[in-house]
């Protein structure tokens, strides 16, 4: 089967997340400062959003800045914050024109007032768009996400709107980030490292993982297609046996 014939809508992931790693090394390999790689990485973001729109993928979640990335040298952190603000301001109109809803997921409290105001404005402008949702994970940590969900549930218990017995996987899942979107199907990491780096710990429970040595600024439609083709060829069993899954697939076709 060719990659093209495998890209049938019914087989495609609905929600893809990417750990966009390798910007620093990409720049250093060309004798440039690390921040050059972050700037070039913006082009790979644009390409990825277009690719998902063309394929009809409903949610794309990009890891832009982790809760641990504050540990980096101050000048890199401040350049990343400036870049985030600039890109937000320059890209939001195009996203809106293409009917893309923008969401920033993460602990926004750490950002400057200016950045927070721009985030709110961009989210409001695009709130009703329906082609796809682009989630940018900024100051995001999977552990933060779960602790935040626990705190929200505790507040409901305190208010008397929930009892401890009501806390289960469904009520918890409703409080984590992106609860209103399709479940995460595919998690991609560029840059050669094989780890999750505190990304979507809850949401990735049954996601398929795909790793590539490609550094983020080099990530293009070709590499993205390879990831999608790999996903399409996987058998997702969710705890069942392969026989059960194949039987279900036959019933579905009948
Ligand atoms: C990913 O690229 C972008 C961010 C974490 C902000 P890196 O900056 O981690 O690049 P490498 O991994 O050092 O090459
Ligand atoms: C993960 O990359 C975070 C982002 C891509 C934003 P890192 O480069 O920060 O991850 P580690 O530190 O190598 O695990
Ligand atoms: Mg890195």
Give a verbal description of the structure.
With 254 residues, the chain is an alpha/beta fold. It has a single domain, classed as Decaprenyl diphosphate synthase-like (Undecaprenyl pyrophosphate synthetase, 3-Layer(aba) Sandwich), CATH 3.40.1180.10. Helix content is 46%, strand content 14%. It contains nine helices and six strands; from the N terminus they run H-E-H-H-E-H-E-H-E-H-H-E-E-H-H. It has a six-stranded parallel β-sheet, sandwiched between helices. Helix 5 links the parallel strand 3 and strand 4. Helix 4 packs parallel to helix 5. It is globular, with a radius of gyration of 19 Å. The model has no long low-confidence stretch (mean pLDDT 95). The site of one 3-methylbut-3-enyl trihydrogen diphosphate (IPE) has 10 residues, from helix 2.
How would the blueprint of this fold be written?
Elements: H1 3-6, E1 15-19, H2 23-29, H3 34-55, E2 59-66, H4 74-97, E3 100-105, H5 113-126, E4 132-140, H6 142-159, H7 169-173, E5 186-189, E6 208-211, H8 221-232, H9 242-253
Parallel strand pairs: 1-2, 1-5, 2-4, 3-4, 5-6
Helix pairs in contact: 2-3, 3-4, 4-5
CATH class category name: Alpha Beta
Residue-averaged pLDDT: 95
Q: Which ligands occur here?
A: 3-methylbut-3-enyl trihydrogen diphosphate, magnesium ion
Helix content: 40-55%
Gyration radius over CA: 19 Å
CA-based shape? globular
CATH topology: Undecaprenyl pyrophosphate synthetase
Provide the domain count.
1
Question: Which architecture per CATH?
Answer: 3-Layer(aba) Sandwich
Poorly predicted sequence stretches spanning 5 or more consecutive residues: none
CATH 4th-level superfamily? Decaprenyl diphosphate synthase-like
Strand-residue proportion: 5-15%
Terminal-residue CA separation: 22 Å
**SSE order:** HEHHEHEHEHHEEHH
InterPro entries: UPP_synth-like, UPP_synth-like_CS, UPP_synth-like_sf
Subunit structure: Homodimer.
Catalytic activity: 8 isopentenyl diphosphate + (2E,6E)-farnesyl diphosphate = di-trans,octa-cis-undecaprenyl diphosphate + 8 diphosphate
GO biological process, one term: cell wall organization
């Amino acid at each position: 089967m060719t990659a093209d014939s495998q890209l049938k809508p019914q087989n495609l992931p609905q929600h893809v997340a990417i750990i966009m790693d390798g910007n620093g090394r990409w720049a250093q390999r060309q004798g440039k400062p690390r921040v050059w790689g972050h700037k070039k990485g913006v082009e790979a973001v644009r390409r990825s959003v277009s690719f998902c729109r063309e394929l009809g993928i409903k949610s794309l979640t990009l890891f832009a800045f982790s809760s641990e990335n504050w540990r980096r040298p101050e000048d890199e952190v401040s350049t990343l914050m400036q870049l985030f603000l600039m890109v937000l301001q320059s890209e939001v109109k195009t996203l809106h024109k293409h009917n893309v809803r923008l969401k920033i997921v993460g602990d926004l409290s750490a950002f400057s007032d200016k950045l927070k105001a721009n985030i709110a404005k961009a989210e409001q402008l695009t709130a009703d768009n329906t082609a796809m949702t682009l989630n940018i994970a900024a100051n995001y940590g999977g552990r933060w996400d779960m602790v935040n969900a626990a705190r929200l549930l505790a507040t409901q218990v305190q208010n008397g709107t929930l009892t401890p017995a009501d806390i289960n996987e469904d009520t918890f899942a409703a409080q984590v980030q992106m609860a209103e979107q399709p479940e995460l199907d595919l998690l991609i990491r560029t840059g050669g490292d094989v780890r999750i780096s505190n990304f979507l710990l809850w949401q990735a429970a049954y996601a398929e993982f795909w790793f590539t040595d490609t550094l983020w600024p080099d990530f293009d439609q070709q590499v993205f297609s390879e990831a999608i083709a790999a996903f399409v060829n996987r058998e997702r069993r969710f705890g069942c046996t392969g026989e059960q899954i194949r039987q279900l697939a036959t019933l579905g076709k009948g």
